[in-house]
Amino acid sequence: MYIGKAAQLSGTTVKTIRHYEAIGLLPPPERQGQYRVYNQQSVELLTFIKCAQQLGFKLKELQAILLRHQGADLPWELAGKAIADKKREVLGQITRLQQIYAGLEAFEASLAGAKYQCGLKRLP
């Protein structure tokens, strides 16, 4: 299949596919004359990359996972480790955000108390 069909099936764009090839995320496809020819495995890899990005993976992280992927099965073991690492990272972010939220709640409460004590009833 040509690049347009691969883009359509994977939910990406032609520009994205060319970019992934340029940075080494997607192996160079076979060619028929001047046309790039993609297979189902290419579409699956593109779909994997898109899904991983939607779940918070950066292209650099995906490059590390797919570094040696050249037409073979996806490196599921490396992907599993990367997913576990990403989950730990997200849990850390959640913890930090919860701390910020608690701080905002406390700050809001202290402002409300100060407003009442100072008789500043006109403040919103």
Could you outline the blueprint of secondary structure elements for this entry?
Blueprint: H1 3-10, H2 14-22, E1 30-32, E2 35-37, H3 40-54, H4 59-66, H5 76-117
Antiparallel strand pairs: 1-2
Helix pairs in contact: 1-3
Structure description:
There is one protein chain. The chain has 124 residues and is mainly α. The chain has two domains: 1-73, Multidrug-efflux Transporter Regulator, Chain: A, Domain 2 (Orthogonal Bundle); 75-124. Helix content is 66%, strand content 5%. The chain has helices at residues 3-10, 14-22, 40-54, 59-66, 76-117; strands spanning 30-32, 35-37. Strands 1-2 form a two-stranded antiparallel ribbon. Helix 1 crosses helix 3. The radius of gyration is 24 Å and the shape is elongated. The model has no long low-confidence stretch (mean pLDDT 88).
Question: How would you briefly describe this protein structure?
Answer:
The chain is mainly alpha-helical. The chain has helices at 3-10, 14-22, 40-54, 59-66, 76-117; strands at 30-32, 35-37.
* Strand tally: 2
CATH class of the largest domain: Mainly Alpha
Provide the spatial order of strands within the biggest beta sheet.
Answer: 1-2
Approximately how much beta-strand content do the residues carry? Answer: under 5%
CATH topology group of the largest domain: Multidrug-efflux Transporter Regulator, Chain: A, Domain 2
In the residues, how many domains can be counted? 2
Chain-averaged pLDDT = 88
Largest sheet, described in full? 2 strands, antiparallel
Shape: elongated
The CATH architecture classification of the largest domain is Orthogonal Bundle
In angstroms, what separates the terminal alpha carbons?
62 Å
- Segments where pLDDT lies below 50 for 5+ residues? none
